Amino acid sequence: MLIHGRPTRTLWPTADGAVEIIDQTRLPHAVEIVRLTGLADAVRAIADMLVRGAPLIGATAAWGLALALREDASDAGLARAVAGLAASRPTAVNLAWALERVRARVAPLAAGDRADAAAAEAAAIADEDVAMCRAIGEHGADLIAAAAERAGGRRVNLLTHCNAGWLATVDWGTALAPVYVAQERGIDLHVWVDETRPRNQGAALTAFELGQQGVAHTVIADNTGGHLMQHGMVDLCIVGADRVTRTGDAANKIGTYLKALAAADNGVDFHVAMPSSTIDWRLRDGVKEIPIEQRAAEEVTRMRGALPSGEIVEVQVAAPGSPAANYGFDVTPSRLVTSLITERGVCAASEAAILGLFPERKVA
Length: 364
Ligand code: MRU
Description:
binds 5-S-methyl-1-O-phosphono-5-thio-D-ribulose, Rossmann fold, 12 helices, single chain, globular, alpha/beta, 7-stranded mixed β-sheet
């Protein structure tokens, strides 16, 4: 999608064997490109959230493994790189999915052939992510078109949480891909953007990308959604996911569950958009089984922003010395999810409906 009018992806390989990413900790104040040349760079980029969002974490891990194998392609090097990347963030299952896909591709090869094969697999993962997200956009735009129909010609209001846009994927996004396709189709649309404390992915990233793309939007404080829904100001919600169980429970950025509760109470459709690489086929109970990342307390007690000079600084917002808890994600049970939007189409959030789209995942 666009940055300053130029089509851009969130990561790309360079001619000299490195990988470049957009440092998302600097957005929206500065667009800075960071070069990854080895395992340590890739682990740091994921753990410190220079890249974030489940599909992009997966694609970066795949490329990170390719970079790591240029440094050490032995069996021990492969195992060490997989373990290091897998430990960088716990909730998004795309990370483990991408690592296993590249590992399985290169493990049978001679050490000397592994790095190039891993790079080819990482490139394929990135390209497939773009195609899956575009397909999610087409399917989700049909839901927005239906909402527009129900709205009888007035502007459709959509609410989203966190950033599940193109910055969270390789391109297009998951929750926001339907918005971009709806825009292409000429549907009059406005997006309510939850700011998404503590790291403000909504205010910083979703608002940035919608603005760059010319989509009408308004940033709201995280607790505003319920009020808007009570007053008929939200036609539908679409959020992304970091891990979805085979039964349709969805882990996403902390606060998503509360939006789903408010949507259910107000009869507002609540959709979860994700590629199949976000489904953890082993799990059935999201609340019990999905690991929830806890991050540094300072992300809650402090906030980052730009001074009028453009300098990016962090300031203390909590009472000095007060302890803080920082749970990164929560789980929305399937009963609160109206539908899942996948690359293969839209389905109910139930095991039977998911398997209807992905019959190859039926267990004998
Ligand atoms: O902590 P983050 O910024 O990686 O969390 C991102 C989200 O929760 C997204 O909604 C999710 O990864 C879906 S991305 C298409």
